[in-house]
C-alpha cells in the first residue's frame, strides 16, 4: 500500500473526486486483460494511471509489424517477442505502484482448461473474443462474482458490454455544500448593484458581471 502522504500527493485530484473509499477500491483491484489488443491496452492504461492494485495480461501471440503500426506501446525492435511481456513492461512504467504480470497462454485454453485461474481477479477485460468463448467465461465470472467486460473493435467501430453481478452504490460524500449568497448585504454593495439594469444587458455584458 502506498504511504498515505505520498498517495495524497500523487492521487490528489481523484481523491477529491471519489474519496478515500473509492481510491482504496482501485488500489485493491486486480484486473486481467485477455488478448493484448490496441483497445484492450488503452483500457489498461486508463486504469493503471489512477492506481489499480495489479494487472495481468494473457496473450500467447508474438509482436508483428502490424502491431507496431497500431499500438504505441510497442516498438520495431520488439517484433517477434512476446506481446504480453512487451506491453506489460511498458504499461508498468506508467505507475511504479502498480504490480504487473503476464501469462503467455491462449485465453481460450484457460477458459476451457483452467477456470480456477480467473478467481484471483476482480475484473476481467475480454478483448475481441468469440461469443461462444465469452459465454463460457461469463459463467465462470458469474459463479465467482467477477465483473466481466467484453470489448470488440473493428476499425472505427466498437462494442462494449459489461456483465456485472448485483452491485450497490452508496454516495458517501457528505452534504457539505456551502451557500455563498448574502441574505443581508451591506449598504455599499446594495447601492452598487442598483446601478445596473440586468434586464437591458446583453448576454456578453451579463456574463461579465461579478
UniProtKB/TrEMBL annotation:
One GO BP on record is:
protein neddylation
THIF-type NAD/FAD binding fold domain sequence ranges: 11-168
Q: Which Pfam families match?
A: ThiF
Question: Which parts form a coiled-coil structure per UniProt?
Answer: none
Q: Identify one Gene Ontology CC term for this UniProt entry.
A: cytoplasm
GO-annotated molecular function = NEDD8 activating enzyme activity
Q: Which InterPro entries match?
A: ThiF/MoeB/HesA, ThiF_NAD_FAD-bd, Ubiquitin-activating_enz
Q: What is this protein called?
A: THIF-type NAD/FAD binding fold domain-containing protein
Whose protein is this, by species? Anaeromyces robustus
